[in-house]
Amino acid sequence: MFADPDFDPSFDMLWDARMATAIDLSSNQVVFFAQNPMLHKGSRLAFVAPESHVFGVLRMFEIYYSMIANPARTHVFREMSDAVDWLNQPAEKGTGSTLDANQVES
User: Fold this and answer.
1) CA distances from 25 to 3, 8, 31 (A)
2) Please, are residues 100 and 63 in contact by the beta-carbon 8 Å criterion?
3) 1: pLDDT confidence band, cut at 50, 70 and 90?
4) Domain count of the chain?
5) Domain for residue 80, yes or no?
6) Residue 48 pairs with which residues in a beta bridge?
7) Each residue's pLDDT tens digit, 27-77
8) What whole-number distance in Å separates Cα of residue 33 and Cα of residue 52?
9) Does residue 6 lie within any of the structural domains?
10) Which of 1, 11, 89, 91 reaches 20 to 30 Å from 100, CA-CA?
């Protein structure tokens, strides 16, 4: 996705992990991904992960990601509606687009 020439790192992103039961990453791999930001500062990345193991790995990513110099804002949610509400809040910098939780496939 990130290699696609049409990918715009200034957009906000929603990562739906509701169907995931595990994420097979070591803590070193989580740190590596966090240290290599994929979005611009001012963008927002919302993760939805109701499963505790997946939620925990993504929270670890969120914490490491917040420590880099110019991170996008990230947050991990258990409920899709909470993630959509967060993304629909006015952003300091961003796309200004809105998302309806009904637009997201269940």
Assistant:
1) 21, 26, 10
2) no
3) low
4) 1
5) yes
6) 16, 77
7) 898 888 888 767 777 788 899 999 999 999 999 989 888 887 667 788 999
8) 20
9) no
10) 1
Give me the residues paired with residue 45 across strands: 13, 74
pLDDT score for 42: 78
100 in a structural domain: no
Distance CA 43, CA 55 (A): 21
Sign of the CA dihedral 42, 5, 106, 66? negative
* Residue whose structure tokens are 């200034």: 10
Rounded to two decimals, the pTM is 0.74
pLDDT at 75: 93
- State which residues form the domain around 71: 13-18+28-95
SS3 state of residue 68: coil
pLDDT computed for residue 33 by the predictor: 82
Q: Is residue 58 part of a domain?
A: yes
Q: At 63, list the tokens.
A: 């914490």
Looking at residue 37, what is its pLDDT? 67
